[in-house]
Amino acid sequence: MTRCSRVGVTALAFAALLSLGVQTVIARTAQERAAQPQITSITPAAARVQEKAPQTLTVNGKGFVEGLTLEITSPEGQMHVLSGQDIRDLKESSFAVSVWINKSGTYTFIVKTAGGSASNAFSYKVPDAAAAPSIERVDPSSVPRDAKPQRFTVFGRNFEQGLTVSLTDPAGEVTAVTRDQIGTVTATSFTVDLTLGMAGDYALIVTNPSTAASNSVTITATARR
């Protein structure tokens, strides 16, 4: 074999080894990508600020395996790591966790496997807590009892469209006022038709669509003479 032939064979062998190495690297990279977890969404899509208890969130995505950990960074930059029994109902595409959401802002979620693979950093935005409605007074605050509806005007603040009204009668029975009994709602007032058929004190409470509830105010129904 001539010197040129030997050089050619060597070059071909080197090229083959190089190609094999590239294929190996590509295959390894593909495997690593397949094993890498990914967060695609978190439900519910928007949690509410809750001071008193943790909330259950479901992390959705793929590549979730036994032994994973969840890193949650709060809006203030504090990190909390959940693992082991903190991870519930684990599936390849989802798992549930209980998280304290006590401040509004953006929380960052990252899933890490026991092998060291990390997911994308998923941003979870928590809106500001809705202001609770507040009742200042009801006009009139005292009326004769009547089996027919009577109109009242509720004054206060932070009333929202779609609010609901509950009325507790003197016997302790709670009635949810139907929407057709509630008139035009503004941020500071609305009208409501109430039937006060029993003499005594009634307690009225307003709840906004955000579930924030107001203080209770008293309406008195007097006995007819």
Quick overview of this protein structure:
By secondary structure, the protein is mainly β.
Which key phrases capture this entry?
Immunoglobulin-like, 15% helix, 1 helix, four-stranded antiparallel β-sheet, single chain, five-stranded mixed β-sheet, 225 residues, elongated, mainly beta
**Strand line-up in the sheet with most strands:** 9-16-15-11-12
Strand content: 35-45%
Count of DSSP-assigned helices: 1
What form results from the Cα inertia axes? elongated
- Tally the beta strands: 16
Main sheet makeup:
5 strands, mixed
- The separation of the N and C termini measures 129 Å
Q: Overall pLDDT, averaged? A: 87
The CATH topology label of the largest domain is: Immunoglobulin-like
In sequence order, what are the helices and strands, one letter per element?
Answer: HEEEEEEEEEEEEEEEE
Low-confidence stretches: none
Number of structurally distinct domains: 2
- What structural class results from the helix and strand content? mainly beta
